[in-house]
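It would be a great kindness if you could assist me with a short task in structural biology. The full record is reproduced below for your convenience:
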Amino acid sequence: MIFLALLLTVLAAVVPSVIYTGIAWWLDRYEKEPWWVLVLTFFWGAVPAILLALIVEVAFDIPLRLFFMPSQAEFFASAVVAPIVEELLKAVPLLFIFWFYRREFDGIMDGLIYGAMVGFGFAMTENLFYFLGALAEGGIGSVLALAFLRAVVFGLNHALFSSAFGFGLGLARYARTGLVRFGAPVAGLLAGIGLHMVHNAFVSTGSVLCLVSLFSDWTGILLWLVLVWVAGRQEARLIQEELADEVAAGLLTPHQARAAGKYRERVAVRWAALQERGFGYAHKLGRLYALAAELAFRKRQLRLQGDAHGVADEIVRLRRRISQLQEELVADV
């Protein structure tokens, strides 16, 4: 019985994060980020970030209790210290990717997705700690009630907060002015911290004012979805524009270039190919579309920022691989 309760507690923390992560991955439709980068980003949020946050927050708790009443110290720690510490730590992998793997950070969509991933990892482990405490105090019933609040009602919060910084980095990726290059990430980080502070401050009241947190959180989540939609439309248009030269050069057919930047058409073509020619052909066709989209993003990087990160060689490699796939597709017909 104890084992079953522990299993349900762990699943209550893990399953929602897995579902949310899968949805976020699906929303990035045109040029998927490398799986290992997404895994490491999630892992940073789930383990190092939350452990470091606990250490720093405990360190701050000691002086707070020396200078404030217990209730005041608890509120200040929750509404001020925790948001600043946690958002700074969740920002670390996004900065790392932005600086050292710039080819994998193409703009707003990538910033939103990477931010969401580190947030989902952080939320999963944090929820597990809370759920284990609820299990010890009130049994599995308390776990399920708390899981509904933390994993469903407020389940997207950490992803929202860290995505604000990712959005700022996305704006800075191809910015032409120093104000945007440096100001957008700072503004995004401050926005994430601010949203986190609003949530924690009003939830800490334990009163009807919690509705302020609910309104703030879900307004932010709806805005996140709008930004993802807008970023997706921008990516689709970019793919069409950058692949026009490849169609003229004969590397891609007009239909292939169009499908690379139109998700529904891409799915429809692959489904028809699966029915007519089998899984192997459909898989190669999907790979062709993915490589074509990646080629479009690399061409934009070269056009806007030059060959600072070996982008020109990557473009050559992508064209060679697409050409090979075209030959394989013709042979499979």
